[in-house]
Amino acid sequence: MQESTPLITNDAVVLGILVSILAIVFGTAASKNPFWQKFYRVVPTVLLCYFLPSILNTLGVISGETSALYRIASRYLLPASLVLLTLSIDFKAIIKLGPKALTMFLAGTLGIILGGPLALLVVSIFDPSVVGGVGPDEVWRGLSTIAGSWIGGGANQTAMLRTFEPSGELFSQVIAVDVVMANLWLAFLLYWAANPGRIDKLFKADSSAIDALQKKVEAYRGSIMKIPSMADTLMILGVGFGITGLAHWIADFIAPWIGTNYPSLEKYSLDSPFFWIVIIATTGGLILSFTKARNLEGVGASRLGSVLLYVLIATVGMQMDLFAIMDNPTLFLVGAIWMLFHITIMLIVAYLIKAPFFYVAVGSQANVGGAASAPIVASAFNPSLAPVGVLLAVFGYAVGTYGAYLCGLLLQMVSNL
């Protein structure tokens, strides 16, 4: 991770830069200029919204490490966007998507559990020092925390940190591997989300259920669409941030209560406030989709939800520092092989069961990115699909600690060979 002070440290200025980037990207994407029309046929808008902030972070103009914007966006804007994106969803149609989504998620989990030890074994053949270290500096201890992050999320990573207790210096190095590898893969998924048809055709995948869900939501939007008034817009924001506030309020009670009275549930991340914030916000949106609040979609609920989500995408982008690869190239090689194995397993399973690329992308991010980025990838396919990403990410929280612990034991076994 970068250690020098960034050129811009004021988060108000950084937020202005990020929102300006979003405005420029979408402004040029809407342009009728032939150059921009050709440009955006090749480069998806969502990829630019993610990649441009990462360039500024890499060059030291801004810093995702020192800025509080990602935490604010993930804690406040993400749950509000989830509420607004789920208002018009057809929950029954999501259920009809079938078991392939869950199958792809589990394939991704298996790829991470086995991929870490395999990557460590392969790299150790060329560089035995990668399995070295003594006590808290044993490399496998640090790598186990990546498994926690890539199967569940921050809470599961913390669980592995407490379980295997790597040194602070080693943990800092593997955090860089975690962030860079995960974000490079996210960039790839955002690129292909704009044109999944080519991969679906290669896999002979049946995406009819996904297409049906999109068409149903879009038809409903078209039937209730109208020009929003000030009251309509404030009603949308009131619902989104009202449910978000409620989610925070409940999480502030239930998470500490579970942590104090049922510490054994920590392995399910049930003592994590963020877990409950995401669950309650998504549930609130789904409940409202059965009420008249669903009509807020006609005055732009999902559009405002998408705006909030794109601000989150920009803050996620500013977490990536490509220069960090130079800190410990061998560890990054382990991370790259690890991620490649995860991807390979997912693509093989997708080909065998003829799963659409949407399930590959969202199933992977429900593992690697969790509740913060799974809905981003799902929304890149279509905003109406964001809840699918959230629901799969919940599975990541549930199995993350178990899967990461097993991976940690396998990593230890490889190191002792």
UniProtKB/TrEMBL annotation:
The keyword Membrane is annotated on this UniProt entry: yes
InterPro entries, alphabetized: DUF819
Transmembrane segments annotated in the record for this chain: 12-30, 42-62, 68-89, 101-126, 170-194, 234-254, 274-291, 303-325, 331-352, 357-378, 390-411
The protein's name in its UniProt record: Putative integral membrane protein
Organism: Echinicola vietnamensis (strain DSM 17526 / LMG 23754 / KMM 6221)
UniProtKB keywords: Membrane, Transmembrane, Transmembrane helix
Keyword flag Transmembrane helix: yes
